[in-house]
Amino acid sequence: SSDGGNTWVRKTNGLDSKGPRAFAESGSYVFLGSSQGVSRSSDSGELWVQTSLATSVESLVVVQWSDATESLFAGTTAGVHRSDDLGLTWLLVDTGFPAGTVRSLATIDWGDGTDSLFAMIPSNGVYRTDDRGATWIAKNVGTLAAQPAFNGLTAAGTTLYFSGAGIFRSDDGGDTWTASNTGLPTLNTSAVLAMN
pTM (2 decimals)? Predict the structure, then answer.
């Protein structure tokens, strides 16, 4: 859509029949994640080309690093993969990271020259990396540790939002979490969306 979603045009040239699960954008490239891996397009979706990552993808995010470089991260059924060359090559970054499907990815620019990436696995919770995925630290503390389900994760500014048995927020990079459910008709939440 080029008119705010009022009309839509199908753009599937080069794609398989499986539906998309995630999108990300970097410069003139658009990336699409599906059960077949990651595809990219440099012409607004007129033609899609499969990248070398063929693992089923659940989430995608582009991180703009403070040194003016950027990385594309894919949350897959086999952990987190990183590409530093617009999807041409991929590296599995899983030191300290448990096995499982990565449902959600979120990134925070702290404004002091540092960035953090967060990943959520339904069976294990939230993890954080401050070194581009080289190492990961679990952030399942306090109320989050007792959650029966881990469903979604997103970030707005420097605040993280998590959905499970309700909505929870963290203003300190996952060190502490606070329930934020006032006004919700149900605590059975399956996804969360935050906007700056």
Answer: 0.86
